[in-house]
Amino acid sequence: MSNIPNDLSAFWMPFTDNRGYKAEPRMFAKAAGMHYWTPDGRQVLDGTGGLWCVNAGHCRAPITQAIAQAAGELDFAPTFQLAHPSVFRLATRLAAITPEGLDHIFFTNSGSESVDTALKIALAYQRSIGQGTRTRLIGRQRGYHGVNFGGVSVGGIVGNRRQFLSLPGVDHLRHTHSHEHQAFTRGQPAWGAHLADELEGLVALHGAETIAAVIVEPMAGSTGVLPPPVGYLEKLRAITAKHGILLIFDEVITGFGRLGAPFAAQAFGVTPDLITMAKGLTNGAVPMGAVAAVGFVHDGIVNNALPGIELAHGYTYSGHPLAAAAGLATLDIYADEGLFERSAALTDVWADAIHGLRDLDVIHDIRTCGFVAGVEMKPKPGAPGARGKAVFHRAFDDGLLVRATADTIALSPPLIASEAEIGEIVDRLRAAIVAAA
Ligand code: PMP
């Protein structure tokens, strides 16, 4: 373990039990393709694409070369009133793969920033078109929209909210998961479209003229992989359109091929007004996020603005040259290797392999959708989350990276995974679940 620093105290780790971690640190020193390596040289198969972001596999040469070249050519250029060529190219390339009509791309540096940017764009749009009373935002229980104030407010995870304050004027739809009606689903569950009708209830309660936007993850990822019921997103789309409410899909996880299409919007055939993205945009190699906006939202803000700045929003690093270079190289790999199509083609192999874990006693539910899975285990009596953590540790120590959310193991391997590697992921997960029982 000689490569592990002696002093771990200064780094205050995000979303981490710092004391527990530092008593028993696990870390990575290297990565390539489907694998990580620990500082002492142990290989770990990546079942999670890092943190849902490394869709093309690790340390891909075209991406690292593009970053290195950009770093040597143009280290930084502001995009406030100035810019550089590659950020325009990336925006054009993104607009070409987003659903039709979502052709305006605003760059950020993370998923959280994308979410708060999308919420601000929604508010600015409503105000621009003379609908300034529309300030209310609606999220959903069990939604994860990052950690900035807008995102935690519309998010539906109490643990991420209670230490802080939330925005006023936010309401939430019920989440769409029901074990009773949806256990062991592959793809979209048949039950639950009617839950979208709750939005009509919120409109009746608050008045449409007070509601700016609804934000949902088309498939909730971080809270355990919850695919949308058949017909649910269509209903949300119809109700929002009917009442002049913008619909935002948070595609930070589902974007870039995870569900077998560029975005979940295309996979599910429902087009929102705004899409947030990050993670797979640069294959995780450089922090970058973006918001894709439909033409009428962009035009509504731009055409109604007073002369000067149209949208008083942006980040120093919006469209950073290194991130733009990484994004362009990443999109090339996705296209050249047909990774979105590959993800679609693997869906059944993946679902068959993962649902094969069903015979284990501790399994409570298994959900698969595209190239994602949530394997929900029964909690250990009196210790919710303990089993998930034990499986995570056991798997890591036996050479497999998974992600534990409470007692659900989430899997989202790089889209380059071979069928043999899929088999290996499932075998090792099975062994870890048995060992940690
Ligand atoms: N939205 C969703 C749906 C996410 O899954 C995440 C991160 N997992 C975020 C937003 C936040 O992204 P970031 O951590 O890059 O801020």
UniProtKB/TrEMBL annotation:
Keywords: Aminotransferase, Pyridoxal phosphate, Transferase. InterPro entries: Aminotrans_3, Aminotrans_3_PPA_site, PyrdxlP-dep_Trfase, PyrdxlP-dep_Trfase_major, PyrdxlP-dep_Trfase_small. Belongs to the class-III pyridoxal-phosphate-dependent aminotransferase family. It comes from Sphingomonas abietis. PROSITE patterns: AA_TRANSFER_CLASS_3. This is Aspartate aminotransferase family protein. GO terms for molecular function: transaminase activity. Its cofactor is pyridoxal 5'-phosphate. Pfam families: Aminotran_3. CDD domains: OAT_like. The keyword Transferase applies. SUPFAM superfamilies: PLP-dependent transferases (SSF53383). Gene3D superfamilies: Aspartate Aminotransferase, domain 1, Type I PLP-dependent aspartate aminotransferase-like (Major domain).
